[in-house]
Amino acid sequence: MVRLVGAIAALVLCLLTLSACADDIETWQPPAELGICARTLAVREAIVAQTDRVHSCAFIDADDLDAIRALDLSGRDITALQAGDFEGLRRLRELRLNDNALRALPHGIFDGLPVLRLVHLHDNPGAPFPLRIDLRVGQDRDERWLYLRLPLRPPGRVVAHLQSDGLLLSQIAATIDAGSYVGRGVNIERSNTAAGTARVRRAAVDREVADCGREACWTGIVLIGQRDAVEIPALAGEGEPPQGLPTLVLRVDSQSFVHDAVVERGVISGSGRWRYYHYAERPDEDDISVDCTVSAYNFVTSGGGGRGGPRQYDGTCRLAMGSGSGTYAYELPARRIEAGAGQDMASDLRSGDPCLASSNLRIEADAGSLAEIERIDAVNAHAESRCYYYISVAQDPNRAAPFRLADGESCVVEVVDGRISASGCRELVWWGGWGFGGIDSLAEARADAALTRPYVDGEEHLKRLAAVAACETLPAVSLTLDEDSFRESPFHYQSVSDEQGLCQLSIRAMAPVDALAGGERCVASARFAPGSAYGAVPTRQSGDCDQIVHWAAWSQPSGRWSEEERQAFAEQFASQLESYSDADWQRLREGHFCIDDICAPLPTEQ
């Protein structure tokens, strides 16, 4: 303020004596704290040139800055910029800084520019300038996810390839839509509550942008991820016991479908009173030789609700399967839960014959009855309708020592009119359930009900860990494709398995018949990556692969495939692709994104 008063006084004096003060007027500079005078000279001159109201940096205010839509600073011999040079330009959409002498950009140079999309930084000594794409973690009570964030709005879709350590992701690629700061979430495996890390391996922006004219919206910019991996915190309640939810087991073979098109098993947990079910549909008549066991692990959240966990498959499980949960958490269903081919469905009761077995069941366990055995089951079955109801009481296998009831105490579990309840069971675990289809007698129903068992801590991870260990021993899979490849078939497939059949790594490639018709050659390969999304593995490509869609996956095989079965699968898939139109192939390519030589399927809508 003192300097301002002094300057005004000097001006008044010079007006009285113009000839004496002419030189002083020409050399006077407004203080840096006024207006935008502290900004880089070329920047403040360009801003002043955009305004008609004032002609001095000292009098530029927020309204003047708010009115600016574009700023051209190209060819100004700018050697350096300051972090606050573009502060307040909230409506700036276009910024040209090309053809200067910039070697670096200050941190946060694009902060506070919410609509900026067209940026040119080419023809500078430091180009392309790195723009950091942040990977962040979101978390609520029982779920975690990763998402991307940029300091300015991208002109096109941004894709980043992710890598995790210690946790599995639902996708190996994350995206940010054009014009958005923040991307959609990529879920982290829900069944593992432990901590882990994740990082952005590579990132790129799609250059095919319609609203920026012929010129790319970004030039002289390259996306990079954080240098350090992002820490993913553990979920609250890590290490807590599963609170009594049993492991639901569905076992089917060729005899299960002699009378039934769908075989279903369900359970109501003793903790949280959560109902869930699993079903399998009859395979084709020419592939009826199935022998499949599915173990479904489920968990209680910290709020007491239930949720699905991982599943394990043993045997030949190439079946249409599904699962779901019910809302009537205390009631055994009178009819089969609604099932659809291979997809989760709602819990509405569907039409069909009701189960004629009585659902009225009772177990009264006391110190004597539980002294020598680990569990007690009660089962009612009806052979003609091939269904049953059951209830169970068991010791918790996660306890260091079995729980013993005192003399005179008892644990009572009962079902009355389809509603299940328990009293006095304390540290025992209990549940009730049902089965539709696949049984012909009470003895078969008892054996089937006994498959569902108490959850054993960590059991659901053992097979996956064994599969991961087996996958790490596998060599890379590779496809070499030339002009003759797609004349023979639009689909090519290669896989490799370990000797024990615990892990299978496969790669697939698809393209229309005229792909590589000019004599080009494409090589696509993949190696197991344990931190990738469950099932997905990034592929590497070399050569002329622009028209080739390829992806790779690892899995726990559901029974070994013979060479004849593998060939039949490839032929069936190829026949579907032969009917694809140009638009179909374009949609397939749009779901496949490559950054340099690494490719991955893009995330689907979540």
- Uncertain residue ranges: 1-25, 238-242, 339-351
- Please estimate the helix content: 10-25%
Secondary structure category: alpha+beta
Determine the N-to-C terminus distance.
57 Å
* Mean of pLDDT: 82
Can you count the beta strands? 35
The proportion of strand residues reads: 25-35%
Strands of the biggest beta sheet: in what spatial order? 19-16-15-25-22-21
Shape verdict: elongated
Overall radius of gyration? 33 Å
Largest sheet: 6 strands, antiparallel
In DSSP terms (H or I, runs of 4 or more residues), the helix count works out at 9
Summarize the structure.
The chain has 606 residues and is an alpha+beta fold.
What are the salient characteristics of this protein?
six-stranded antiparallel sheet; alpha+beta; five-stranded antiparallel sheet; 15% helix; 606 residues
Structure report:
The chain has about 600 residues and is an alpha+beta fold. It is about 15% helix and about 35% strand. It has nine helices and 35 strands. The chain has a six-stranded antiparallel sheet, covered by helices on one side. Strands 27-30-32-35-34 form a five-stranded antiparallel sheet. It starts with a helix and ends in a 5-residue tail after the last strand.
List the helices and strands and how they pair.
Elements: H1 2-16, H2 18-27, H3 41-49, H4 62-66, E1 70-72, E2 94-96, E3 118-120, E4 129-132, E5 134-139, E6 144-149, E7 158-165, E8 173-176, E9 186-187, E10 196-205, E11 218-219, E12 221-224, E13 230-232, E14 246-253, E15 262-269, E16 275-281, E17 291-300, E18 306-316, E19 320-326, E20 361-366, E21 375-382, E22 387-394, E23 410-416, E24 419-423, E25 429-436, H5 442-449, E26 453-454, H6 459-471, E27 477-481, H7 485-488, E28 491-497, E29 504-510, E30 522-526, E31 536-537, E32 539-543, E33 549-555, H8 563-577, H9 582-590, E34 592-595, E35 598-601
Helix pairs in contact: 1-2
